[in-house]
Write a structure and sequence with these properties.
Blueprint (H helix, E strand, L loop, with lengths): L8 E6 L2 E2 L1 E6 L2 E6 L5 E4 L12 E6 L12 H8 L15 E2 L3 E6 L3 E11 L6 E10 L7 E8 L2 E12 L2 E8 L13 E9 L2 E10 L4 E4 L2 E4 L2 E3 L1 E6 L12 H13 L4 E4 L6 H10 L2 E5 L9 H18 L5 E9 L4 H14 L5 E5 L7 H13 L5 E4 L4 H7 L9 E6 L31 H12 L19 E4 L5 E2 L3 H4 L6 E2 L12 H12 L6 E3 L2 E3 L1
Parallel strand pairs: 19-20, 19-26, 20-21, 21-22, 22-23, 23-24, 24-25, 25-26
Antiparallel strand pairs: 1-5, 1-8, 2-7, 3-4, 3-6, 9-10, 10-13, 11-12, 11-14, 12-13, 14-15, 16-17, 17-18, 27-28, 29-30
Helix pairs in contact: 2-3, 4-5, 8-10
């Protein structure tokens, strides 16, 4: 690259790496990266205008007590050796650049982001949209622009942008009545914004958005004012030999097959997925959640700070995605009030329109006293969802559900049958499948056994599914199966020393070959859950 003169603005957009990295341009360090986090770094001062530019990412795949993800690595090194650097977050075994990377430069100001804020009147017959353009390179005091929105090529409104901060232009458009996005009708509007300076038009930004309202009321999740039940599944953003590098055709295949089984919600588990995933979910009408890659050491001040930055990047990147119905602040076996309060404040400051949650991964969380303690911590932190990973027996379910809060929705973010694999053994004879099924003589767990346990583990939940009446107790508002696909999990022995380091509880193998019996039984199980799953402005579609 050779430029005639220095640009006004130049920055690197780095979509994500695993796990941490420093970034150098022409030998000059210009920033640092954390796992799965979209990051924008100013490159202007380090850019070589006259000739060659050398970009260097020094990636470190080790995890420590002060990294996110991370864990008690220092304590585990004497036991596990170098493997400890991947523990206990073993769902991230492959390091490297896993998202798109680009250099943006211009001799004019540029639009870095386009955001659409949505609010509604009481019956959702009027949508008030504020379109914001975030600008780099020049103060908005010297700029102006215009925005517009259309549906199927027909203009719905246009407006002239005015400065609202030194780096944002905004204007407002009202749509009456709006075509509301839902799983049944995933309608998308086209939005555009143009930036002008004294020389004329200098940049253009576009997006496709769904207009919809998501909120909580008592123990219900409301989409467009109507209660919904989340018939869910978890999905790791992993693509076999490609690791975390997303393949668009695979994403569409996954979403199509998942949707055909009756699922309306995907928990994007443990880290934000590739941005293509939420855009395709918008188009297909699949509700999803997104989560930062936080698991352990929430008491560490550095972890809190890193998590804040991760929340900011996650919300900013996918703010416009209608498919994203809540943000998750992490996943772990303990609740730290400082961590939760700080990250929840960050998420809600950036996006007051969506609920926030944190998936509790504590095997003892079925005890009523613990449920009350957790509920009080979450509410004090400003968190509006009670999210639980619950690999529970019917005894635990029957003990826990009457004690669940009725002033916030309860979503079971992980449940599972056992593992099953006809492509090879789970482990050596005598090892255990996850969560509790074993054929000790062979170590092999056929698909038929996995299918049986899916149904047997689902049945105890059935009396408690669906909060169609606000405040009804006991009930849950969602149930997410673990997991869509088999994955390698080298750190599994950290959690269960008798377990081989894989997770084969998926409905498809790692290469997406379907497991016929588990998929069939799972689809039947989804048909037993509440079907009032796609609320529209006209009412509930049963």
């Amino acid at each position: 690259m050779s430029l005639q003169q220095a640009p006004l603005v130049a920055y690197l957009d780095i979509g994500g790496i695993v796990n941490t990295a420093t970034v150098k341009l022409n030998g000059q360090q210009i920033g640092a990266l954390t796992a799965f986090t979209a990051t924008r770094l100013d490159a202007l001062a380090a850019l070589n205008i006259a000739g060659e530019n050398v970009l260097e990412l020094d990636i470190d795949d080790r995890l420590f007590s002060t990294t996110v993800p991370g864990g008690p690595t220092e304590l585990l090194l004497p036991v596990y050796g170098a493997l400890a650097y991947t523990l206990p977050i073993a769902w991230a075994p492959n390091s490297g650049i896993v998202r798109d990377l680009s250099l943006v430069y211009s001799d004019h100001a540029v639009i870095t982001d386009l955001f659409v804020d949505q609010s509604f009147n009481s019956d959702l017959s009027v949508a008030n949209l504020q379109i914001r353009l975030r600008i780099a390179g020049e103060s908005t005091a010297h700029l102006n622009g215009g925005m517009g929105i259309s549906l199927s090529g027909v203009a719905e409104g246009e407006c002239l942008a005015v400065p609202v901060t030194d780096d944002e232009l905004a204007c407002n458009i009202t749509i009456s009545p709006p075509a509301l996005w839902s799983p049944a009708t995933p309608t998308l509007y086209d939005v555009w914004g143009v930036l002008l300076d004294s020389s004329g038009s200098v940049d253009l930004a576009t997006d496709s958005i769904g207009v919809r309202q998501i909120r909580t009321a008592s123990n219900q999740i409301l989409l467009n004012g109507k209660p919904i039940f989340l018939r869910g599944i978890t999905r790791h953003d992993i693509y076999g030999a490609q690791g975390f590098v997303a393949n668009e055709s695979t994403i569409r295949q996954d979403l199509t097959e998942i949707q055909e089984m009756g699922v309306n919600f995907i928990r994007s588990i443990h880290y934000p997925p590739d941005p293509k995933f939420s855009r395709i979910a918008d188009q297909m009408g699949m509700m999803i959640s997104e989560e930062i890659p936080a698991w352990a050491n929430y008491q560490e001040p550095m972890v809190v700070s890193i998590a804040q930055n991760m929340v900011t990047a996650m919300v900013n990147r996918d703010y416009n995605r209608a498919s994203v119905i809540y943000w998750s602040l992490g996943n772990g076996n303990s609740l730290n009030p400082t961590y939760l309060g700080t990250t929840a404040d960050t998420a809600q400051f950036l996006d007051p329109s969506r609920p926030v949650g944190f998936s509790i991964d504590d095997p003892g969380s079925f005890v009523p006293a613990k449920i009350t303690e957790n509920r009080n911590i979450l509410l004090a932190a400003g968190i509006s969802l009670y999210l639980l990973n619950a690999y529970w027996s019917s005894y635990a379910i029957n003990m826990a559900l009457p004690a669940m809060p009725t002033d916030m929705p309860v979503v079971i973010t992980e449940w599972a049958g056992s593992e099953g694999s006809d492509q090879g053994p789970i482990g050596l004879p005598g090892t255990s499948a996850f969560p509790a099924w074993t054929f000790s003589t062979t170590g092999i767990f056929p698909e038929s056994a996995q299918a049986y346990t899916i149904l047997s583990e689902l049945q105890p939940w059935l009396p408690f599914v669906g909060c169609l009446t606000a405040g009804k107790s006991p009930c849950i508002s969602g149930l997410a199966f673990f997991n869509w696909q088999d994955i390698d999990w080298p750190g599994m022995p950290y959690f269960d020393p008798l377990h081989y380091p894989v997770l084969h509880s998926g409905l498809v193998y790692e290469d997406r070959t379907p497991k016929q019996w588990p998929m069939t039984i799972f689809q039947y199980g989804m048909s037993l859950l509440p079907q009032w799953s796609h609320a529209t402005s006209a009412g509930l579609n049963y």
